[in-house]
Predict the 3D structure of the following.
Amino acid sequence: MLKIFSWNVNGLRAVIRKGAFQDFIIKYQPDILCLQETKAKQGQAEIDLPEYEEHWNSAVRPGYAGTAIFVKNELKVLNEYHDFEKCPELTVKKDAFGDPMNEGRILTLEFERFFVVTVYVPNSKNELERLHLREHEWDPALCDYLKQLEKEKPVVICGDFNAAHEEIDIARPKTNHHSAGFTDEERQGITNLVNAGFIDTFRTLNPTAVRYTWWSHWGHARENNVGWRIDYFFISNALQKNLKSAEIYENVMGSDHCPVSIDLEF
């Protein structure tokens, strides 16, 4: 059984200082661990994990965004790709907030049977200033990228998509239809992934479960479980037969997001 985890750590160095990262690794022993919002470059975070091989895509801007994947040494990584490096015809234009292609938002590893992609999707911002980027640039390019990868072998994509897909995925849908993370445009971006054949693993296995992966720092949201499910694992249809479980770990602390995982059996 292959256990793949994803976690937006909201600053890896902070999670390490709290001891939460080490405790998580010891308890769950992921085979592949995909991280988002590392806010660090390799070497800045002191990690003593000799049983893992580290792969990083860090932002040019210090202390911002970034992704990483830790892989158990016995698993062979064939190739590593940053951003849309494998499909150079794809790009996302920079906007007033910066260049998404310099923010370490996509990291792809190729294994024998599949690709693993970890992604940290840009936030649309409180006033929706980055919604145009999401709708017209980022989301279409990401979907195209995954479809290109899938021509070679199946794809596992995970990470922080900064959007709740359906009303069941957010505690207060009625008051958030025009909020960043639950606009029609952002939700359509996820629908487009599903329509392209990528399976929302948790929702497929748990069609009626009300579970969340992110909580605001305000108003005791986590204590009251007023949350959003914005962290996902999607897989190619070809891997559905291998999917054995999909889980959310609300009790793992250290970040405003909690980890999510899938188990694949080959």
Notes: The helical segments are 12-17, 20-28, 131-150, 184-195, 201-205.
